[in-house]
Amino acid sequence: MTRLLIAASSAVVRTGLETLAASDPDLELVGSFPDLSSVEALRPDVVLAALPFEDLSPPADGVAPAIVLLSGDSHPAWSADALRLGVRAWLPPDASAAEVLAAVEAASSGMAVLDPHDLEALLAGSGAAASPEPTGLTPRELEVLRMLAEGAANKNIAWKLGISEHTVKFHVASILGKLHASTRTEAVAIGMRKGMILL
Predict the structure, then answer these.
(1) For the residues 52-76, what does the mean pLDDT come to?
(2) Which of 33, 117, 120, 154 could form a disulfide with 168 if both were Cys (CB 3.0 to 4.6 A apart)?
(3) Are 137 and 175 a contacting pair, CB within 8 Å?
(4) Domain ranges of the chain
(5) What is the dihedral of CA 173, 17, 90, 84, to 10 degrees?
(6) CATH class belonging to 139-193
(7) pTM of this prediction?
(8) What is the distance, to the nearest Å, from the Cα of residue 96 to the centroid of all Cα atoms in its chain?
């Protein structure tokens, strides 16, 4: 069970995020506030924040929870500052419910969610050239890719691997980003060309 705290300056947005959190049985909502002042007292696993980046601040004890930030700020999402503050996902305000829940689950598992464009910006900023070659997949992503090649639906993949559908969606999104593919079919085709999938 992931302990979730919601922080949003807008009461309407908070209500919407509370409803979203209540729809996921794996989330325990520990509080919903207009700011981050209660984070240290409640010790959530993940903070779902609909706030400007400037409102984030390092915790007094130096232990930052994972933050899923819903913000349209133009601040570069994957700066070192953002990572130090605990940001593990930076989504646009119009992100879908499935994207938000998948990001929360990923953050609670210690993963970071990167949009492919953010990844390219991060690599460019670090002095590394963004390569058009597909990035290597993790062993779990390879498992998911091979099941996609078999035509398995997210629900079947989740059942076979003993994970949630939200996690499957996260893995599929990661696979598409790493392989520079726009569809599952294209990802499978690239995987076959690269020898990741054996027939």
Answers:
(1) 75
(2) 154
(3) yes
(4) 2-121, 139-193
(5) -120
(6) mainly alpha
(7) 0.60
(8) 12
